[in-house]
Design brief:
single chain, about 110 residues, alpha+beta, Alpha-Beta Plaits, 4-stranded antiparallel beta sheet, two-stranded antiparallel ribbon, 2 helices, 8 strands
Length: about 110
């Protein structure tokens, strides 16, 4: 099993969800996060000067999948989340040793 963790723009979440649903992938955990990448935040002109916003709001999605779906899920997220601008996000792929279903105690390897 693999864990796909994607940090993406808030406004791209519905596009990613719909794109994954087309391939029959519905299960995911989504939560708000803040962070910054190479762009170092944003700088806005304000009445009394420049306002520096270092941490930008993003959404983190975690999707646990079978290993054979890794490439499909990663390319689907890349295509659906991409705007072509700095701050589009990042995708991490992590191994999962196994999982346990709480309701039944079933073990998935």
């Amino acid at each position: 099993m693999k864990l796909i963790k994607a940090i993406i723009r808030e406004e791209r979440v519905p596009f990613v969800q719909k794109a994954l649903a087309v391939h029959g992938i519905f299960g995911m955990t989504v939560y708000p996060v803040q962070g910054r990448g190479d762009q170092g935040g944003i700088h806005l002109q304000y009445r009394k000067g420049i306002l520096n916003i270092d941490l930008l709001p993003k959404i983190a999605m975690e999707i646990a999948i079978r290993e054979d779906l890794e490439d499909l899920v990663v390319t689907t997220i890349l295509d659906a989340a991409r705007t072509g601008k700095p701050g589009d996000g990042k995708i991490f792929v992590l191994p999962i040793k196994g999982s346990h279903r709480v309701r039944t105690g079933e073990v998935e390897a």
